[in-house]
Amino acid sequence: MDKAGIIAEKIGVRFGGFRALDHVNLEIVPGSLHSVIGPNGAGKTTLFNVLTGRQLPSEGYVRVGARDVTRMGAHRRVHLGIARSFQVTNIFQNLTVAENVRLAVQAVRRGEPWTFWRGVSPDRDVGDVLAATGLQGRAGDRAGTLSHGAQRALEIAMALGSDPRFVFLDEPLAGVSIDDIHRIKTLIRGLTPRRTVVLIEHNMRVVLDISDRITVLARGAVIAEGTPADIRTDPAVRTAYLGTAI
Amino acid sequence: MSTFSSYRPFPDATTGALAVVLVALPFVLPSVTLASELVVFAIGALSCTFLLGLVGLLSFGQGLFFGIGAYGSARILLHSNTGSLATILSAAAIAAVAAAIVGFLSVRRRGIYFVMLTLAFAQMGYFAMLAMKNVTGGENGLTGLPRPPVFAGFGALTHPQSVYAFLAAICFLAFVLTQRIASSPFGSVLRAIRENDIRADALGYDVRLFKIMALAFGGFLAGLAGAMHTIFLGLAPPNTIEPEMSERLVIMAIIGGTGSPIGALIGAGFYVLLADFLSALWPRWLMIIAFLMIAIVLFLPNGLWGSVELLIARWRGGRVRVASPEAVDG
Known about the structure:
The complex is a heterodimer. Chain A is α/β, with parallel strands linked by helices. Chain A has helices at residues 44-52, 74-78, 97-106, 124-132, 148-160, 178-191, 204-210, 228-233, 235-242; strands at 6-15, 18-28, 33-37, 59-64, 67-68, 82-84, 166-170, 196-200, 213-218, 221-226. Chain A is built from nine helices and ten strands. Chain B has one domain: ABC transporter involved in vitamin B12 uptake, BtuC.
């Protein structure tokens, strides 16, 4: 089971008459850093939602190893080791930074979420996750008061709280200042090979630098897949997406 | 002090203050029956305060569970000779199960649709009561109920004072239990769901199941209050299950403020005492309650207790944290 990857087969998602995804195949190799890139509206986040359980696909299957999880809800997939962050910061604004992370850690503690007869007990993993994401100094602050960059770090921290095997990060660098980009990039790269990382990111320099494998989506379909070197030279990618960027 | 707004240690200052208030009430108020009525409605309002303040669920159906508690305890009193305590707890348990079933169906929708579903169930309950005349007594309600001792022949409830003592003790325990839940790991999940249910789901919490369990506890509290009402009155009148009861409990919760369990006591106290005072003066007294409700929602959005808390925080010079009322959501 630990060696299992995530396999998506012939994924199709329709919103009314609009095809957000069409016949998408994807195999995520355990321990790798797999990026999904493509122009705006290509269906990247929809694909994420299908893989993490927020969106039921109209067609196709999602498997973790041999297990079909196509119809399994997001909260149950977390218990299979699949966690995610959000493109638009999606944290508990009115709770403290530590409580945000503690809720993520608590979610996978057996029986703990249903415990109502005693207080909340401190958890060492919370401190570890805060330290790993550079948030230890802000533990007691209200999450809504953090800077944008720190909120993006908290997004990642919450994804890591459940100690997942698969981490889905949706544009973790969006709006992050240049000073923080390197730190978050190093953090993401350091998650592998212990964890598998699936990354949506628009910062091409970072994607080409840290990815093991890249899938390029355009208009809901896969137009290329390969190593960063392959993608850099792929003519279809150049015309559809990269233009003159490289 | 706002146990629902954010995590607080348990027990806190309000736990002690509650005990003092409950002991003092029968001596301060003009009559001990008024004090009994107050503690009954404090628990009823607490069911709304808990759901709205901690979980962010606005239920217009708590009157249904109040009614199930009232009629359920009346049926138990008519058919068996169990003590008053066991009667109240059994009726509250029945209400909790009913609330879990209603919850199971209602939590499939969020926001205003959830609110509408709870309202529809409350309406349905009222007409079911009218239809099942041989069980509920129809428009006459169930009358001529005994008031057995508290437990196994001990604790006779013959004087209004002993009835108050019994009801106040249950009221205290219900508040303590609610505070305990609010400051537990389970309570922290409910708070997370109120803040952001999509993120709670993404973190691995089964949001629907947590909401159903929270609604069951809310139903337990409302049923407890309904059963206490039956013991207190010695009858189960139809107005215990009217949709107006649901409204009244929500109004009490909002007047008091939903940031803390104590808001329910303040809101119920305010409503019950004002109703007692105004109804003697003017038969259309409910209009004044409506005006007050409008004024509170407009000018004191945190309710009476929430405003007191703000004043205390300001007086202490501490950082004022406004816990504005949560968006209505299901």
